[in-house]
Amino acid sequence: NKLQVKGIVRLDPLPDKTYVRLLRHDFSFLAKKRQRKFIKHSRSKTQKSKNYEVTSPDGAIILKVTSGTKLQWSVQHKGREIIVPSSISLALQTGEVLGDNAEVISAKPESINTSFDAINYRKRIVSDVCNQLNLKCNGDYGIIFRVYNDAVAYRFYTIKKGEIIIKNEEANFN
Question: Distance between CA atoms of 73 and 51, rounded to whole angstroms?
Fold first, then answer.
C-alpha cells in the first residue's frame, strides 16, 4: 500500500477485518463513517502550514512537526503531551533563518534498524532502532527528526555551497 509506505496510514490486521490507522493529521478520511475508503491531504489555508508526524517503533511516542511561519515540533508519550508546540531554527551569519517560513518540498519517512561498534561504552555494539522523518526545505536545507522507543532527536543539515556560520539557534522545549 503506497499510503503505508509513505507513513500516512498503518494497517492493523484483526481476525475479521483490517483496521486502518491514520498516522498524519494533515490527512483525513472521506465518505460516510462506515465506508471511509478515501484519504484527503489538507493544508491550513490561513498560514500555509503543513503538518507531519512520526512515531516510535513501539508506537508509544508521537512527534509532530508543523511548518509555517515558524517550524514547530511537539512530542506525546502514550497520549500525554510532554513537549508542547515549540519553535526551532538556526540563524546564519548571512541573516537567513533556517526554520522561519519553512517551505517543505519533500518529506521522507524511514525506519532504521542498524547497529554500530561503540568506543568507551558499556556495550561493545549499540543498536540504532528508530523511525525517521527527513524534511527537505526550499533554501538548500532540511531537518531530520528521529523517534526512538525512549527518546526523540532532531538535527538541521544544509547542502549549501561553501562555509556557513551559525549565529544563533532557537531550540525551545516547552
Answer: 10
| pLDDT string in tens for the chain (174-residue length) | 566 666 666 676 667 666 666 665 555 555 444 444 454 555 544 447 899 999 999 999 999 999 989 999 999 999 999 999 999 999 999 999 999 999 999 999 999 999 999 888 888 999 999 999 999 999 999 999 999 999 999 999 999 999 999 999 999 887
Strands 38-41, 50-55: parallel, antiparallel or unpaired by DSSP? unpaired
- Tell me the whole-structure pTM to 2 decimals: 0.71
Query: Of the candidates 101, 99, 113, 94, which has an alpha carbon nearest to the alpha carbon of residue 47?
Result: 101
70-74: long-range contacts (C-beta < 8 A, 24 or more apart)? 70/99, 70/100, 70/102, 71/99, 71/100, 71/102, 71/143, 73/145, 73/154
Phi, psi of 33 (to 5 degrees): -50, -45
23 within 8 A of 55, measured Cβ to Cβ: yes
